[in-house]
Amino acid sequence: MASINVSYLNPRTVILIGIPGLEHVQFWIGFPFFAVCLVSVLGNIILLIIIPTERSLHQPMYIFLAVLAATDIGLCAAIVPKMLAIFWFRSCSMAFDTCLAQLFSIHALQCIESGILLAMAFDRYTAICDPLRHKSILTPSILSRMIVMVAIRATVLVGLLPILIKRLHLFHSIVIAHSYCEHMAVVKLAAEDIQVNKICGLFVGFTILGFDMIFILISYVLIFQAVFRLHQKEARLKAFNTCTAHIFVFLEFYILAFFSFFSHRFGHVAPSTHILLSTIYLLVPPALNPIVYGVKNKVIRKRVAQIFLLNHESQQ
Fold first, then answer.
1. Where is the G-protein coupled receptors family 1 profile domain (predicted)?
2. Phi, psi of 20 (to 5 degrees)
């Protein structure tokens, strides 16, 4: 009888507690996360304004960057409003179906971002290893198909996660020890067999993140081989310089992604540490991406300076 008293059948709501053990300082933790989100949204909106209007940026790398910027804005919109409501206003309750929708949105956008990073690596590979055929390979129609396939792959595979959760009916708790609805954090609430959910989560993670990471690494092995075969030092530096922004974004995304992924399933990391790092993993790369690419590209730097100078002059 005791187990029945603490079980929930088809719960309609869940409770997100934020960061376990740090509830007393969550109010202050919200401010740096809000600042990072603000930088991310403003930076990515600026990219979405500049890239379509600047003809010199109508290249595969920057088209993919625009998709990445839209994805990053979506991630911030999916996570930050509810997280700040928890931290600042103690608004912890959430409809169960809304929680599943947030879960799907966050993980699908993560997978789209991973796919776009793979597409950007392929662009760098063709630009450096087969420059004469670069434009003929990555035509506008091929770019569109690549982006659509990345979105379909993420939607179909990640869509399995909330569908499998919906088949669970009995839960031993409705309190999620997290600041957003993460897949395993929700699955662990169930009082039923969750082996299928765990296997599916690993399958989706390895099928998307693992597959993309392996092929990005292969692309860069081939790129570095081609670069080091160049005889002139200036040519090698120029070729390598075109990849540095993407390498930085790739490393920050996958290192944090796999740490978050494995620590929640197999690690013995403190819950507060895991949640802080997983939130940083989701919010910091979207803020850094426009900064990294803005610093590396002269056209973007120039247009950003023009935007802020125009705003400054209009205020005067």
1. 43-293
2. -55, 135
pTM greater than 0.85: yes
Please state, as a whole number, how many other Cβ atoms lie within 10 Å of the Cβ of residue 54: 15
